[in-house]
Design brief:
The chain is an all-alpha fold and 91 residues long. 76% of the residues lie in helices and 0% in strands. It contains three helices and no strands. The longest helix has 35 residues.
């Protein structure tokens, strides 16, 4: 196997590792997002996003917090694809 073939195989492993890492961290990010969106309790401070009488700033913060998980997973998928594709094209 030539040197380029070894680098491509290594980049597949790195890309797969990033993909698995992103999918493994997704439940923790979802739990953190859900905790932040819920109402405040004794042990945590939440945004109370289910309440319709919150200010527009809090509503915008709820939307930004809610969209964190798809952006997180999408970024890690994109990063894994970029590692694999970059090694194939530029080596």
């Amino acid at each position: 196997m030539n040197n380029k073939g070894q680098v491509v195989f290594f980049s597949f492993m790195v890309g797969l590792t990033i993909l698995i890492l992103g999918l493994a961290l997704a439940p923790a990010v979802k739990q953190s997002t859900d905790l932040a969106r819920n109402a405040s309790t004794d042990s945590s401070i939440g945004l109370d996003c289910d309440n319709e009488s919150i200010s527009n700033f809090d509503k915008a913060n709820c939307i930004a917090t809610d969209i964190l998980l798809p952006y997180f997973i999408g970024f890690l998928l994109l990063l894994a694809g970029a590692v694999v594709l970059g090694r194939i094209l530029f080596d």
